[in-house]
Amino acid sequence: MRFETHVVENETSRSYPYVSYRKTTRLRSLLQRETLDFLMEAHDGLSARIAENIGFMGLWASGLTISTALGYRDANEASPIQVLDAVERMADVTDVPILVDGDTGYGNFNNARLFAKKLCDRGAAGVCIEDKIFPKLNSFVGEDHDLAEIPEFCGRLRAIRDRVPDRDFVTVARTEALIAGKGQNEALDRAHAYAEAGADAILIHSRQANASEIFAFADRWQNRLPVVIVPTKYHSTPTCEFAEKRISVAIWANHNMRAAARAMEDVCLRISNEGAISGVEKDVMALDRIFELFKYCELDEASRRY
Amino acid sequence: MRFETHVVENETSRSYPYVSYRKTTRLRSLLQRETLDFLMEAHDGLSARIAENIGFMGLWASGLTISTALGYRDANEASPIQVLDAVERMADVTDVPILVDGDTGYGNFNNARLFAKKLCDRGAAGVCIEDKIFPKLNSFVGEDHDLAEIPEFCGRLRAIRDRVPDRDFVTVARTEALIAGKGQNEALDRAHAYAEAGADAILIHSRQANASEIFAFADRWQNRLPVVIVPTKYHSTPTCEFAEKRISVAIWANHNMRAAARAMEDVCLRISNEGAISGVEKDVMALDRIFELFKYCELDEASRRY
Amino acid sequence: MRFETHVVENETSRSYPYVSYRKTTRLRSLLQRETLDFLMEAHDGLSARIAENIGFMGLWASGLTISTALGYRDANEASPIQVLDAVERMADVTDVPILVDGDTGYGNFNNARLFAKKLCDRGAAGVCIEDKIFPKLNSFVGEDHDLAEIPEFCGRLRAIRDRVPDRDFVTVARTEALIAGKGQNEALDRAHAYAEAGADAILIHSRQANASEIFAFADRWQNRLPVVIVPTKYHSTPTCEFAEKRISVAIWANHNMRAAARAMEDVCLRISNEGAISGVEKDVMALDRIFELFKYCELDEASRRY
Amino acid sequence: MRFETHVVENETSRSYPYVSYRKTTRLRSLLQRETLDFLMEAHDGLSARIAENIGFMGLWASGLTISTALGYRDANEASPIQVLDAVERMADVTDVPILVDGDTGYGNFNNARLFAKKLCDRGAAGVCIEDKIFPKLNSFVGEDHDLAEIPEFCGRLRAIRDRVPDRDFVTVARTEALIAGKGQNEALDRAHAYAEAGADAILIHSRQANASEIFAFADRWQNRLPVVIVPTKYHSTPTCEFAEKRISVAIWANHNMRAAARAMEDVCLRISNEGAISGVEKDVMALDRIFELFKYCELDEASRRY
Fold first, then answer.
1. H or E element in which residue B86 lies
2. pLDDT of residue D4
3. Are A44 and A85 within 8 A, CB to CB?
4. d(CA C16, CA C92)
5. Is residue D30 within 8 Å of D57, Cβ to Cβ?
6. Any idea what the Cα angle at residue C176 is, between residues C175 and C180, rounded to 5°?
7. Which has the minimum average pLDDT: A247-261, B16-30, B50-64, B157-171?
8. Which residues of B53-83 are buried (b: 16+ CB within 10 A; e: fewer)?
9. DSSP result, D73-107
10. Best residue in C121, C129, C156, C304 to probe A by mutation, most A CBs within 10 Å?
11. What is the band of A137 on the pLDDT scale with cuts at 50, 70, 90?
12. Lowest pLDDT segment from B190-194, C20-24, C254-258, D47-51
């Protein structure tokens, strides 16, 4: 079983009781079940391992945060293979399913299906692609967010479905209709078209400070497919309201990276000002905790065993 | 000039007054001048950009933290080319020189010189190699730290010097004699041998909670070559004492990663407990600040210009 | 078929009549059955695709030839991740199983098991590791071929078996005892120890111009495990003799690369001398044949479909 | 000097008399001087090393052949970073300048300048980009070759010029106007616009079986900038005619790969039919010749020296 291929990197995984299904199957269940679930952003092996360890049931491999960690701007400066490599590192050190932010699919239907196929090979459980044109720009930056033609974007979705052999691999269609200021009708038309094209869920994106346009969409959409949201901008909307609107998955889309960035800025500033590290010692993770997270003890045992 | 090749990624670099020398030359100066200087750890583009932005004059590309970010253990699980790729990402988004933790050089003299040569090509200013055997284990883990034979390790140093074409590229020889419990005489013998072999500086490593064995070394070494230290374990020793002992460079060796790890663990826990992101919003870096760090505005201007 | 090549890696492949088993299972069968089988060397996507297309039932991803194609020497100058990437490209465009030349495993037991695990993830069907020390040098070059200690090498073998989750993934133990001039007893002792440690087959290597020492080994070994050979140097020994000696698999270990190198040297020389390409046109592969090998027509159909 | 950074990989390079200029400067000279020069296709370290060794003064890193070697179709299936990695391997083992086929620049002005900047960092001497839209399809396949808008493509050219710090790095603008069936006026209009935008040379592409449309272009263009051609389809046109038309550079664009592919197909077929390798032994390159090309003797000497 493919799933087994990926869990064992983490030695203890064999004993996790819940690891009885493949990652793709588990992500699919997460989307389809009635409850509201959460995906936590991760951008490298460390952030993924930490998020899993705290108990998140799934991860969001964010295009923005993978790019940022690499030192690229979220404008398709990173090559798809670099994103793929980052995702593989996350998948290799965790047991929870990963939904990957596939941007626009990095080109046309052919690029999209190739990328999705390789994501599946490398251990991801699903991909989300958005209805913009390559190269994209981050949805929170500027006003230049042209939408793809509906049939062309549906072609990308269908090509992914036809290519990825694991039937449980999840394809989420993200519409930027509201980001582009095209209104609810456009968003709904697109969502319906994407459902026809075989999407497993719809991610409806918004950059308003409140969830009203998201909720308006949800009311009319009537859960034809599970709805996924990214409340980065409307973070103050109480989560229970998402549940009431029968949102399926909320993605905490960039908070590991932003927490890390803030902490690094703080620690750099303090060390720079204090000319010393003793002051920050108690505020950073102990090395032993790092060694524990990545099971250095297993290495020690193993070196005696082999 | 090679240096120019690397700085321009960062648009504003052209106006930095101090960017009048190549990175290798600047790292060399940092080592050779009388004052005590500091290198801040970085492990990816983001951490490097932040550390530079706060004002550090040089970076330490740590083997431990690059490995950890990738989700590997610090036991040469990451391929040298993965470390190289990480260093390139750091070099591409910063103007300050980077000293790279080259572990043992990833094998024999041939692996070491090849790695150093590529580091130079990819924008690093120097490499530090340690007198252990590939694959190494982190110096703070376990007791299994066999030292390399002196002539063999000197061969690695000489091979690097002969191969890297940039005469200012820095080669730091790190001795693990004290880590391995071999005592001061061994450490000094090795340091002298490494000086003969062409090292530009000596990194004397210790995992004691105080600096006494470091200082004992410094007293007898008499600065034949600049001394570099890594006060991770003896962090409570006042920095002024390092200066008094005429230490050349102190490396804050893993604090960006440890700050990030702690912050990610905290933010994951809070979001998980609160089932929401609104509570952490003010404690993570604003997205606009991320966009500023990586000059998204340049992208906007440029898209009008081109 | 290229497109199918991408699906067969996984689940749906089971419906193809000839692809009725996983690649690992098929390689295992190839080794275990009575007949003599052949693996053809490949070093990149193109060579793999061609070898499969001609009808070879399995491929040998050679360390020498992958290194050479990349422009490295066969002395572990290439990073394991570069070999892994090359293997993935081969696996992605072919349906036949690939046995990967894993050199020494790139370090100790930990490097070996990590490499084997990733090979399995990336689509290889098996790995072969040899009982030398990292970094190795090509077996046909020089006299410096120190053997690893038997227990240490067995540790590498056991670590691979314990780590790779696919039970059919093949681990071949290659002994360099004859290359190192240690004689038949050493070779046999090692082979028996490697069998105990869980190897699936023994590769007995020789650089003599005839197969006598290989046959002497085979006579005493009595097929406790299947025997694999690399007749590069004793190429003039008739293949039927291998079959008589009940050799399981013969590897044509570098002939695609050497054919390519010779042809490129010839074509460069001719074009250089003639100052024109018209003379060589009929002697190089037609572009249409390249397009056929990689099914450009599928791309055309697909662009109409999506 | 950057150039020095790249030549020393090849030990003997120091003694080459002509290596007195940087690779970028030499490629620029090649383009600008009156004589007709040739670039030979290469796609990996081995093909590059062979072409240089035979005496070609420059190399063409072809998108088609790099893709094909990797097992991708020439439709931007390979990530830009994979092309970059391939080019670096070529540059590391050769002293002659490399002009890189940059396809469309892999997206918009930002992707194009980032790619060109990294090519320069990794040792290429120039880039050629074509006036089509990402993702492109090979010019010899199908009829679907939409041209980019002139101002947008000029933006890509200007962005490259502004970003790459080495003033001698060459930017070749390739127009597909004739491929797209747009006629001479369109081709000329575009060439003039690209010259205004700062291109260093114009590559005029054709897939006709004779050079008449190329020559018609050359007659009207009057060498405002040097002209580069790719005579793959009109190979039977005598080279002297190119010189008469004052073509600056002719690219032998895929012949190493096609020679290799043909030879591999032949050798696979023969080995498969003969069930043996003895028959082909004399027709493939001797291993010793491979060892010579990559200077294994240097490794041997060095292992005694270090």
1. helix B80-92
2. 32
3. no
4. 17
5. yes
6. 150
7. B16-30
8. ebebbbbbbbbbbbbbbbbbbbbbbbbbbbb
9. -TTT-S-HHHHHHHHHHHHHT--S-EEEE-TT-SS
10. C121
11. confident
12. C20-24
pTM of the shown model: 0.94
Mean pLDDT of D88-112: 98
In angstroms, what separates the C-alpha of B87 from chain C's closest C-alpha? 16
- Taking CA atoms, what residue in B is nearest to A91? B71
**What pLDDT does D144 receive?**
73
Q: What is the dihedral of CA A295, C105, C150, C208, to 10 degrees?
A: 180
Residues C229, D82: Cα–Cα separation, whole Å: 34
**Going by C-beta distance under 8 Å and a sequence separation of 6 or more, which residues neighbour residue D188?**
D217, D220, D221
Task: Give how far Cα D228 sits from Cα of A24, C128, D51, D134, D170, Å.
Answer: 50, 47, 19, 22, 12
Q: Averaged over B128-156, what is the pLDDT?
A: 92
Q: Which of residues 117-146 of A touch C (CB under 8 A)?
A: 117, 120-123
Q: Which amino acid is at A144?
A: D
* DSSP code of residue A306: -
CA dist C280 and C272 (Å) reads 11
If one counts every other C-beta atom within 10 angstroms of the C-beta of residue B109, the result is 25
Q: List active site positions of A.
A: 74
Touching C (3+ Cβ pairs <8 A), the chains are A, B, D
The pLDDT value given to residue B16: 41
- In this prediction, residue D21 carries a pLDDT of 79
pLDDT of residue D141: 87
Which of B230, B238, B305, B221 is CA-nearest to residue B63? Answer: B230
Mean pLDDT of B275-288: 98
Whole-number Å distance between alpha carbons of C179 and C141: 10
Q: What is the pLDDT of residue C20?
A: 53
Percent over 70 (pLDDT), chain D = 93
Helices A80-92 and A45-54 cross at an angle (nearest 10°) of 40
Cβ A93 vs Cβ A49: under 8 Å: yes
Catalytic residue among C44, C74, C131, C200: C74
Nearest Cα residue to D280 out of C298, C261, A155? C261
Q: Please tell me the number of Cα atoms within 13 Å of C233 on its side-chain side.
A: 15
Please judge whether A284 and B258 are an interchain contact, meaning their C-beta atoms are less than 8 angstroms apart: yes
pLDDT over 90 percentage in chain B: 90
The C-alpha atoms of residue A63 and residue B173 are separated, in whole angstroms, by 39
Residue C46 contacts D where some CB pair is shorter than 8 Å? yes
Confidence band, pLDDT 50/70/90 cuts, at residue D5:
very low
Please report the pLDDT score of residue B82 as a whole number: 98
Report chain D residues whose CB lies below 8 A from the CB of C276: 235, 238-239
Query: How does pLDDT run across D250-286, given as a tens digit for each residue?
Result: 999 999 999 999 999 999 999 999 999 999 999 999 9
Task: Phi first, then psi: give them for residue A49, nearest 5 degrees.
Answer: -60, -40
- What would the two tokens of residue C167 be? 């039970």
> Are the beta carbons of A243 and A29 closer than 8 angstroms?
no
**The two three-digit tokens of residue D107, written as one number:** 């997206």
Q: In the block, which residue shows the tokens 């002992």?
A: B245
Question: Which chain B residues contact residue D303 at CB under 8 A?
Answer: 108-110
pLDDT computed for residue B42 by the predictor: 98
Distance CA B67, CA A22 (A): 27
Preferred mutation among B262, B280, B296, B300 to probe A, highest tally of A CBs within 10 A: B262
Q: Supply the angle between the helices A109-121 and A80-92 in degrees, to the nearest 10.
A: 20
pLDDT of residue D140: 87
With contact defined as beta carbons under 8 Å apart, do B172 and B28 qualify? Answer: no
**C39: helix, coil or strand?**
strand
